[in-house]
Design brief:
Elements lengths: L1 H17 L2 H20 L27 E5 L6 H7 L4 E8 L10 E10 L9 H7 L3 E11 L11 E12 L7 E12 L2 E3 L2 H8 L8 E9 L7 H23 L3 H4 L5
Antiparallel strand pairs: 1-2, 2-3, 3-8, 4-5, 5-6, 6-7, 6-8
Length: 263
């Protein structure tokens, strides 16, 4: 008898609940949500899969950069720094334009390319933070447009927005002298372009995309700060116009074929 009363006390509240409109509505919403998640999981990609390069960056053809000649292909020797970089898919090349006199500000340049994939929460490394972290000061920051064809841009509007930094770098040593550097960079991310870390992270989080990748292309000249910003922009544009089509056609993933499963 006692067990019967206990069961009655347990069952009666449930009987009252199922007669409540609010309870019924909540139950329906939860059931629909569960069904939606089950169906949506087939199409929503909250976790991203890696997408390999079509061709390693190490196999980038230096002849495609003419008249620039690659005179040094240094890898990062410090393991801690390479680990902080977060990838082994990178190249950093020293370029020399033999058509220019050695005294020309744009005689010697640098090309730094990195590639990351499969982790949309990865914080992209950008000079804005890297130089500041080593004691530099960002004097000015610009978002400027260059023209770049055959690299996935709209043929009717082949303008590419890049970020350009003017950086003051204190020098250590007895002289106490300081130096300046003008650095530019742009990202390729999931078949599009961006020039800020926020843009990169937002583009990678699109729920329709099964995969995620981003690649940073950075260009600067050893003595570029001796010239004007516009002169630097023109010289940088020349490098981007040469390297981006090669990366787009031969190295970065074919995003149209692999990237987005839902249109």
């Amino acid at each position: 008898m006692r067990n019967g009363r206990v069961q009655e006390y347990i069952i009666m509240p449930w009987k009252r609940l199922v007669r409540e409109p609010a309870f019924i509505v909540c139950a329906i919403v939860l059931a629909l949500s569960a069904c939606g998640m089950l169906v949506g999981s087939q199409y929503w990609y909250l976790r991203k899969e890696p997408l390999a390069l079509r061709k390693s960056l190490d196999r980038l053809d230096p002849n495609r950069l003419s008249p620039y000649e690659v005179v040094a292909l240094p890898k990062i020797e410090n393991e801690a720094i390479e680990e902080a970089l977060g990838t082994q898919d990178y190249i950093q090349w020293q370029l020399v334009n033999r058509q220019l006199d050695s005294s020309d500000p744009f005689h010697t340049g640098y090309l730094f390319i990195t590639y990351y994939t499969g982790n949309p929460d990865k914080v992209p490394h950008v000079p804005d933070w890297c130089y500041v972290g080593s004691g530099g000061v960002i004097e000015k920051k610009h978002d400027r447009y260059i023209t770049a064809s055959d690299c996935g841009l709209d043929d009717l509007d082949p303008r590419l927005r890049i970020r350009v930094l003017e950086i003051h770098i204190p020098q250590r040593g007895m002289s106490g002298e300081n130096s300046r550097k003008i650095v530019s960079y742009v990202f390729s991310v999931n078949g599009e372009y961006a020039c800020t870390r926020t843009e990169v992270r937002l583009k990678q989080r699109d729920w329709r995309d099964r995969y995620a990748y981003f690649s940073k292309v950075e260009v600067w000249f050893e003595r570029g700060a001796e010239a004007s910003l516009e002169e630097n922009l023109s010289a940088m544009e020349d490098v981007y116009q040469k390297v981006l089509p090669v990366l787009y056609s031969s190295h970065w993933p074919d995003w149209e074929a692999a990237g987005r499963n839902i249109q």
